[in-house]
Write a structure and sequence with these properties.
The protein has 512 residues and is of the alpha+beta class. Helices cover 28% and strands 21% of the residues. It has 16 helices and 20 strands. The radius of gyration is 23 Å and the shape is globular.
Length: 512
């Protein structure tokens, strides 16, 4: 790695100190919660003038000594497992001027900056030890939607559901992510594994322009003609970006007139035939069909029938985005041709839906308030090989909420080349892995062990990772493997050029 090590966070608080701490009321749902006294003691040693920072910004700031600090720093995190890192100060910016002032203050005071978007990244890279957290929670408006130019301008903290709801009023849509609550903020900076990706491309491919604040505290506009290096880096660098993004200018699309959805539950006994058949139909399907292969806990009505298979099923889902239900049905016809379809335990075929329906379904599979470990990867293997290696292990999964899913990309050009002009640079025939989800802290050890074993099983099939859905905290090398070698190198060079003093945390600093 050629990351900039010049500037280290001022306060070094070891993970051990955090883990040693007792659980505070506000964060009792988190593991390894911080010991606020230790953080406070460390902060007291820090040499920055709190009053000067208060004067520099118009917004609230939170210090570890504040009663609501834990709530401000951890309350917005999706993953209830992580709360073992803490900044020296969190700044809840409200305006561009706040962001500029905060960055300039950090730079002048040798503090490092981490950015909190929606807090949805599974491994919480917005939480670093020491430094300043710039929290964008208040920057949550859709500024404009122009149905003529088909461009929307959004602040970062807009959820997938919200953007699609607003665009629907204009018969427009955007390649957002899949779950309702996740925010555009970090999604658009990481790559963007989107709905209807086969037709619309990744989220980053529809980011036309970004307004951002640099490490010098300068507000710039980056697009294909201006500040091209920033434009390139922002579309993929994710947690490794060296700027704060304040507004995204998004390219919009006509909303598909028909969303056609099917789901088939097969016994795990049939996973081999199902997965092999999936590999054969994927290249024949139109790219407008989003196809996924799953191992999940059986729905309640199939619990009895699947008892001898660990209560799990092998599920196939498809969603077609088309002009009419007829075209949707035609596009989905191949999903009815599985050689073991007569043994299908239950199915729901060609149901009309819309974004609301898709978000409801995804929201149910990835529920809130869970403890999570996630490792999504790209693969070029036959899904049958992957399930062969993992099915037995999945049946022993300690938590019924855990989902194992692979998006199987469709169409004749798979794997499609990654976009040419973005830091995001991964591709594969498949994308997915285990989303290990559980509720109680008491079950941490069992789930962590199971998850780790699953990653080991998947390793031989992995060609790359995705910074938005990989545990780059536990496995820093997965950040490296989320980029082509050339792009990883270019990112490091750009960081050196545009953030030579290391104002922004890089991928790895402040995590241990
Ligand atoms: C339930 C669920 C479903 C998901 N589904 C998908 C999916 O379908 N497709 C997909 O691609 N991803 C998906 N993700 C992953 C998600 O897109 C990323 O984790 C993304 O980072 C979330 O954005 P955020 O702003 O909430 O991130 P945060 O956790 O707030 O930020 C992550 C990092 O990104 C950087 N960052 C964020 N915002 C900014 C900004 N405005 N300026 C500068 N840096 C910033 C910071 O370095 C920060 O540490 C899903 C996540 C969850 C929890």
């Amino acid at each position: 790695m050629t990351e900039n090590k010049e500037r280290q966070p001022q306060v070094k608080i070891s993970r051990r100190i955090f883990l040693a701490g007792g659980l505070g009321a506000a964060s009792s749902i988190f593991v390894g919660s911080i010991n606020p006294e230790k953080v406070l003691a460390a902060t007291k040693k820090a040499s920055f003038d709190v009053e000067a920072l208060r004067k520099a910004v118009t917004c609230d700031i939170s210090l570890p000594s504040d009663k609501d600090f834990k709530d401000k720093v951890y309350g917005g995190l999706w993953n209830r497992y992580y709360a073992n890192r803490a900044p020296q100060v969190a700044v809840q910016v409200k305006t561009d001027a706040d962001v500029i002032a905060a960055v300039k203050f950090a730079k002048a005071n040798n503090m490092k900056v981490a950015v909190r978007g929606g807090g949805h990244n599974w491994c919480a890279p917005s939480l670093r030890n020491g430094g300043m957290m710039i929290d964008l929670t208040n920057m949550n408006k859709v500024i404009s939607i122009d149905p003529v130019t088909k461009i929307a301008v959004c602040e970062p903290i807009i959820s997938n559901r919200e953007i699609q709801q607003k665009l629907k009023a204009h018969n427009l849509a955007f390649p957002s992510g899949h779950c309702p609550q996740v925010k555009l903020s970090g999604y658009l900076l990481s790559g963007g594994m989107s709905w209807n990706q086969g037709v619309w491309g990744h989220g980053v491919e529809s980011v036309e322009k970004i307004e951002m604040v640099t490490a010098d505290g300068e507000l710039i506009v980056a697009d294909k003609d201006h500040n091209q290096d920033y434009y390139w880096a922002a579309r993929g660098a994710g947690p490794g970006l060296f700027a704060v993004c304040l507004r995204y200018h998004l390219k919009l699309y006509d909303i598909p007139k028909a969303f056609t959805c099917s789901a088939y539950n097969y016994s795990m006994e049939q996973y081999k035939e199902v997965a092999q058949w999936i590999s054969e139909i994927a290249p024949k399907l139109d790219p407008c069909v989003e196809l996924s292969l799953w191992m999940v806990t059986a729905p309640a009505e199939l619990a009895e029938k699947t008892k001898d298979q660990g209560g799990k099923v092998c599920m196939v889902t498809g969603t077609a985005f088309t002009d009419s239900q007829e075209k949707g049905k035609a596009a989905m016809a191949l999903l009815d041709t599985c050689p073991v379809i007569s043994k299908c335990l239950s199915k729901s075929v060609n149901q009309p839906s819309d974004f609301e329906g898709l978000f409801d379904a995804s929201g149910a599979l990835w529920p809130e308030n869970m403890r999570n470990q996630v490792e999504a990867m790209f693969s070029n293997n036959n899904p049958a090989e992957i399930l062969d290696a993992t099915a037995e292990h999945f049946k022993k999964c300690p938590s019924p909420a855990t989902v194992f899913m692979f998006a199987v990309f469709t169409g004749p050009n798979v794997p499609t080349p990654p976009p040419k002009d973005t830091a995001f640079s991964m591709t594969g025939k498949l994308y997915g892995g285990p989303w290990t989800m559980w509720k109680d802290q008491a079950d941490d050890a069992a789930n962590l062990k199971w998850h780790k074993e699953m990653i080991t099983l998947l390793k031989p099939f992995t060609v790359g990772h995705y910074v938005a859905e990989s545990d780059t905290v536990t496995y820093p090398e997965h950040a490296v493997h989320a980029y082509s070698k050339a792009n990883w190198q270019k990112l490091a060079e750009l960081r050196k050029k545009y953030d030579p003093k290391g104002v922004f945390f890089n991928f790895t600093d402040g995590l241990a």
